[in-house]
Amino acid sequence: MAGSCFPAFRLGKPRSKRRLRMPPMSSREHQLNSEENMEGKRFDSLESWSMILESENVETWEASPKEDEDEWTADLSQLFIGNKFASGAHSRIYRGIYKQRAVAVKMVRIPSHKEETRSVLEQQFKSEVALLSRLYHPNIVQFIAACKKPPVYCIITEYMSQGTLRMYLNKKEPYSLSTETVLRLALDISRGMEYLHSQGVIHRDLKSNNLLLNDEMRVKVADFGTSCLETQCQETKGNKGTYRWMAPEMVKEKTYTRKVDVYSFGIVLWELITALLPFQGMTPVQAAFAVAEKKERPPLPASCQPALAHLIKCCWAANPSKRPDFSDIVCALENYDECMKEGLPLTSHARLVSRNLILERLKGCVSVSSSSSPSTSSSSIPVHA
């Protein structure tokens, strides 16, 4: 099965190339450039993966002792790597087969000569594996295995054949998605995020590029490299995520909560309705400045359903406490979906008022009641609460 789908690795020596004359440089610069060029070529060469994953080739890349192996450690003898279909600054994603199952293999190259970058990438790998390995939900991409073979780490997940939500939207005409399609996709995302928050995890980089589609066009939340447990998120320095989808409090590097994900969902919902890139025409930094300092948001089209426009505005509210929880968002979207099926107009959902805001009001009422006499305490909460 694997042999028919993927080309065999070739371990032959690379052909020699003619050297070009370059301006003179210091020995240190020459060494760094040589290392970067060598790592770049090896990183993009399919044959280099076989050399890394075959433990007998290089002594320092041999597997860890059995007692040190984690339960998620991949059996590399069962892994076949195919063609690359996505790439990032330090990672490449390949199609593959693992134990006769189609998978996506994310390879992360850890640079040896950049200590700060190495530390960040290693921490992201540990965080992503630790979180993914404990998450089980139909709308969360399924983790299968991982491996550490310095200088390369890999994460194996289920293969999502239709790519990212952003790729899907790029193929669509602006404003062309039906309300039914928008609701179906939005429900998948919000259910995945509701589960994620129920596990105490903040994603911190929710965007259309990190949402994947399978053969049935169902959406799954992916890429947990910058995610964290809510109790530990404030320990990390600097802002995380991507500026176009980033909540204003995170842009300003203020204290934040899980509501940063709700803000990002509001931007994603806007993407579903428009099929456009948020803050098109702006650089990412300009978009961040517009959101944080000018309180700007992407323009809502006049054709947008009023109920969906209301939901989006609630999600990207400047005050995090006014943003709804994902449980309320799921409830609202399910209500809208039922209305569509029954041919009824969509109506704004009453539960979209944030529970935090309700609790704040109730606290005020309780403080009033505590100052009143005991005989009237049972009926002292005002009706407007």
Keywords, separated by commas or semicolons:
385 residues; alpha+beta; Phosphorylase Kinase, domain 1; Transferase(Phosphotransferase), domain 1; five-stranded antiparallel sheet; two-stranded antiparallel ribbon; globular; nucleotide-binding
Strand content: 5-15%
Give average pLDDT, whole number: 80
Radius of gyration: 25 Å
Task: State the major sheet.
Answer: 5 strands, antiparallel
The H/E string reads HHHEEEHEEHHEEEEHHHHHH
**CATH third-level topology of the largest domain:** Transferase(Phosphotransferase), domain 1
Tell me the number of strands: 9
Which regions are unreliable across 5 or more consecutive residues at pLDDT < 50?
1-22, 38-67, 364-385
Structural class, from secondary structure content?
alpha+beta
Q: Architecture of the largest domain, according to CATH?
A: Orthogonal Bundle
3D structure, described in words:
By secondary structure, the chain is α+β, with helices and mostly antiparallel strands. The protein folds into two domains: 57-159, Phosphorylase Kinase, domain 1 (2-Layer Sandwich); 165-360, Transferase(Phosphotransferase) domain 1 (Transferase(Phosphotransferase), domain 1, Orthogonal Bundle). It is 38% helix and 13% strand. It contains twelve helices and nine strands. The protein has helices at 2-5, 27-44, 46-53, 115-132, 165-170, 179-198, 248-251, 259-274, 284-293, 306-315, 326-341, 355-371; strands spanning 79-87, 91-98, 101-109, 143-149, 152-158, 201-202, 211-213, 219-221, 228-229. The radius of gyration is 25 Å and the shape is globular. The termini are far apart. The relative contact order is 0.08. Mean pLDDT is 80; it is low at 1-22, 38-67 and 364-385. Residues 12-21 have a biased composition (Basic residues). Residues 1-40 are annotated as: Disordered. It catalyses: L-threonyl-[protein] + ATP = O-phospho-L-threonyl-[protein] + ADP + H(+); L-seryl-[protein] + ATP = O-phospho-L-seryl-[protein] + ADP + H(+).
